[in-house]
Amino acid sequence: MGIFSKRGKNREERAAHIADQVAGGKGFYGRATRAFLGKQDFAEVQQTIGAYKSGQDVQQLLAMGAPTIPAVVLAIGDTGRLVNYDPVVDLVLQPSGTTDPITLQTVVSKLRIPRTGDQVLLVADPARPGGYLYAGDGVAP
């Protein structure tokens, strides 16, 4: 194991723990990030981490067999932020069977950025009743 190992956690678990600390502004990493960044920049970091975590949640939901809902992209906007070199975008979507458009901020693959008029998939967000998470375009990468 070595002198400096972290209680048997693997690299991904440690990174997720640090990201949670930064997003919450707690622990050493969260307090240091909040102290060095301004209020607006820290809020953007929190939004970016939230977008990344929603992508992980979608992967877990799809693996468990959660049903998807088709939607049409009405508009797309760039936020100027990246997660692992993939852009974080604002999407305005029209889910099928509804009349009200919804707005999501999510990470999309830089190779498969949706365009206006494209059909994409959504998954119901278990953390927010009535909310949705972006699940991609349904084409396997």
What can you see in these coordinates?
There is one protein chain. The protein has 141 residues and is α+β, with helices and mostly antiparallel strands. Helices cover 35% and strands 29% of the residues. The chain contains 3 helices and 5 strands. The chain has helices spanning 11-24, 27-36, 39-63, and strands at residues 68-83, 86-95, 102-107, 119-124, 132-134. It has a 5-stranded antiparallel sheet with strand order 3-2-1-4-5. Helix 1 (11-24) crosses helix 2 (27-36) and helix 1 (11-24) crosses helix 3 (39-63). The chain starts with 10 loop residues before the first helix and ends in a 7-residue tail after the last strand. The relative contact order is 0.15. The model has no long low-confidence stretch (mean pLDDT 83).
